[in-house]
From TrEMBL:
Protein name: Cytochrome P450
InterPro entries recorded: Cyt_P450, Cyt_P450_sf
Keyword Signal in annotation: yes
Keywords assigned by UniProt, alphabetized: Signal
Superkingdom as given in the UniProt entry: Eukaryota
Signal as UniProt keyword: yes
UniProt signal peptide: 1-22
Organism the protein comes from: Heracleum sosnowskyi
GO molecular function per UniProt: heme binding; iron ion binding; monooxygenase activity; oxidoreductase activity, acting on paired donors, with incorporation or reduction of molecular oxygen
Length: 151
């Protein structure tokens, strides 16, 4: 029983150290919009206890406190919420190519996602444009879709 306890304690300590170091590193390298501070492991559990329908009033309160662009740490990656129509238009329409890049994957994610050789996991660029063009021209073409219709 003592060995299992030591293993669990060492795993908890290593997870706490890793998350603390990642927060310190990310705060130095990335300039993110303002948002509430979170405790490395406990902050993620707080979001798990909330319902999806409770998110809107929370974001409204954060908008009043931090402004129209808010960063929330949900899980291991930050989530950025834009609560202003003009800012959303600028980010999604005018600068869409800049913000369309997916975050880097872990090494195990490369294996699971076929080394980013499909449309759902490829990074934005020439490969993704080629995958999208092939999907639209072959699979999503109206003549091809008619073959899948139930008559």
């Amino acid at each position: 029983m003592e060995i299992w306890f030591m293993i669990i304690v060492s795993l908890c300590i290593s997870a706490l150290i890793r998350s603390t170091l990642s927060i310190i590193q990310s705060s130095k390298t990335k300039k993110l919009p303002p948002g509430p501070t979170t405790v490395p492991i406990i902050g993620s559990f707080i979001w798990l206890s909330k319902s999806f329908f409770q998110l809107e009033p929370i974001l409204h309160n954060f908008k009043l406190k931090y402004g129209p662009i808010i960063t929330l740490k949900m899980g291991s990656r930050p989530a950025i919420f834009i609560a202003n129509h003009t800012s959303a238009y600028c980010a999604l329409v005018q600068a869409g190519a800049i913000f369309s890049e997916r975050p880097e994957e872990l090494p195990t994610g490369h294996v699971i996602n076929s080394y980013q050789h499909n449309i759902s996991s490829a990074s934005y660029g020439p490969n993704w444009l080629l995958f999208r063009r092939n999907m639209v021209e072959t699979i999503m073409h109206p003549a091809r879709l008619k073959t899948f219709w139930w008559t």
